[in-house]
Amino acid sequence: MSVRTGNSVVRGLGLAFVVVALFVLALTSAVPAGEGNADNPGILPPGSNAYGQSYAEWSVAWWQWVWSLPATGHPLFDMTGESAGNGQSGHVFFLGGLLGRSGAVERTITVPCGKPLFFPVLNIHVNNIGRPVPRTIEQMYARAQQFMDSITDPYATVDGVAVNNLSAYRVVSPVYSIWLPATDNVYQTVFHINVSGTFSPAISDGLYLMLAPLSVGEHVVTFGGTAGGPPYGTTPWSLNVTYNITVEPGKK
Predict the structure, then answer these.
(1) Containing domain of residue 171, as a range?
(2) DSSP structure string for 181-248
(3) What digits encode the pLDDT tens for the residues 147-199?
(4) pTM over 0.70
(5) Tally of structural domains, the chain
(6) What does DSSP say about strands 176-180 and 197-211: parallel, antiparallel, or unpaired?
């Protein structure tokens, strides 16, 4: 994944990127473990009410989570998994890729039992931070679509089983806002733009998966793909993410 701050475009590969300080999400319904669709058992259908919210609403929550965290100890800069639990205060556990760059990462994490997992395989966030001439919302969506149309070879596996028909899990967000901490936020520390507070509008587009809670024990989740190159950009990039997950008994 790469970030071009002059264009206020953040490409998130499987990133795992967000929910805000408004990050505690009310869950009005629960989906039993193992429920999914016929093609992909254990993965919530993209049109479902997934644990109280739509996929589009969860995609917004994921991005808000990403931006709300300090750069120090950020789960998407972490190369081992030791920071994976930072900011995980809701019913759903977020996974992600790498923030601001492409590459490969393997993380080893522990997740309490009963936690669904939500993550982007490949995604993009667009806002107007740092732009002297703001884009219209229509231009922002067009920019995101251009990126998504450049994706090739997206993949995701759960315990060695490939997820089928990933294109069905493409999610375009509504317009939303993001919140950046006063100090040590990602824009200040990584993108070198001295901003903080609440910013709107923002939009995103991507391939997302919601996994029903995994059984107690050891699991492996992988995801990634390739994007960029003409006509979106000159240099393609790729993401390859592996999560070695231990689901602990007795904690929810």
Answers:
(1) 3-248
(2) -SSS-HHHHTS-----EEEEEEEEEEEEEEEPPPPSEEEEEEEEEEE--TTT-SS-EEEEEEEEEEEE
(3) 999 999 999 999 999 999 999 999 999 999 999 999 999 999 988 999 999 99
(4) yes
(5) 1
(6) antiparallel
